[in-house]
Design a protein that fits this description.
This is GIPC PDZ domain containing family member 3. By secondary structure, the protein is of the alpha+beta class. Helices cover 28% and strands 22% of the residues.
Length: 312
């Protein structure tokens, strides 16, 4: 039974204070402002300096350069970085350093050459600009094409036997040239880039260098894609650069093309896989139009593994 003292003690308890009102929610952090990416550009044969920005892929880059100089985008054959010369080691590929200077090489003279295919290989390595033009990236010493003085590195291949190949990818053009019959003459219609005075007489850089020149500046690059939006990324790691170089060499030996963006995509794909079978399935899903042969996929997988071991 409760005593009077207990009841009095309970009555003397301090009243419970009301809960404090909830503190107002903190405003969400403002999104990090994306810096404006402004690049300087010139026409390789000579022009004032223009500034371009706001492009998200390769085709838009060409359109912005064309707009800056009042020309049609189709006039641009390819771009080089930090050099106005037709130097394939400086070719704009999948990445632009945020401080790189872009030189656009535009259409110059058109020429036609007759070639007789006396060997299986012509000695050409083909690449493309990601916007519809395939062009010559390398000429092998002592090859059929090397003996034809009129054909130069940097020439865009516009037609084979009067059949226009504008809009074809590099691997399609390389396949057409491989399939031409031996001992039968054929005609190439070529467009050479317009040259500045100090470039006249320059024909080729046909020696195979151990590494492609880096085209990035600083710690970040703008990675361009032939399809999809550009992204700002860290400079590729030593492994990524070495693996991409090895894959690009295999693309040249198997298919007669060089394509740093394609090589980089294949290396990125390999990171998501743990076996060559899984790697092959992933390649089919993202690059199925190339129809890579099985033996090529196996060699690419091995080359990427060797690059990983070499870079620790």
């Amino acid at each position: 039974m409760e005593t009077t003292a207990v009841r009095e003690a309970r009555g003397a308890e301090a009243p419970r204070l009301p809960a404090p009102p909830p503190s107002p929610a903190e405003p969400p952090a403002a999104p990090r402002a994306r810096p404006r990416l402004i690049f300087r550009t010139q026409l390789a044969h000579g022009s004032p300096t223009g500034k371009i920005e706001g492009f998200t892929n390769v085709r838009e880059l060409y359109a912005k350069i064309a707009e800056a100089f009042g020309i049609a985008p189709t006039e641009i054959l390819f771009c080089t970085l930090n050099s106005h010369k037709v130097d394939m080691q400086k070719l704009l590929g999948g990445q632009i350093g945020l401080e790189d200077f872009i030189f656009a090489h535009v259409r110059g003279e058109t020429k036609e050459v007759e070639v007789t295919k006396t060997e299986d290989a012509l000695g050409l390595t083909i690449t493309d600009n990601g916007a519809g033009y395939a062009f010559i990236k390398r000429i092998k010493e002592g090859s059929i094409i090397n003996r034809i003085e009129a054909v130069c590195v940097g020439d865009s291949i516009e037609a084979i036997n009067d059949h226009s190949i504008v809009g074809c990818r590099h691997y399609e053009v390389a396949k057409m040239l491989r399939e031409l019959p031996k001992s039968q003459p054929f005609t190439l219609r070529l467009v050479q880039p317009k040259r500045a005075f100090d470039m006249i007489g320059q024909r080729s850089r046909s020696s195979k260098c151990p590494t492609e020149a880096k085209v990035s500046s600083g710690r970040e690059t703008l990675r361009l894609r032939s399809g999809g939006a550009a992204t700002v990324e860290e400079v590729p790691s030593e492994f990524e650069e070495e693996a991409s170089r090895r894959v690009d060499d295999l693309l040249e030996s198997y298919m007669g093309i060089r394509d740093p963006e394609l090589a980089s995509t294949m290396v990125e794909t390999s990171k998501k896989t743990v076996s060559v079978q899984e790697f092959a399935r992933h390649l089919d899903s993202v690059l199925g139009e190339f129809a890579f042969p099985d033996e090529f996929v196996v060699e690419v997988w091995a080359a990427i593994g060797e690059a990983r071991e070499a870079c620790g």
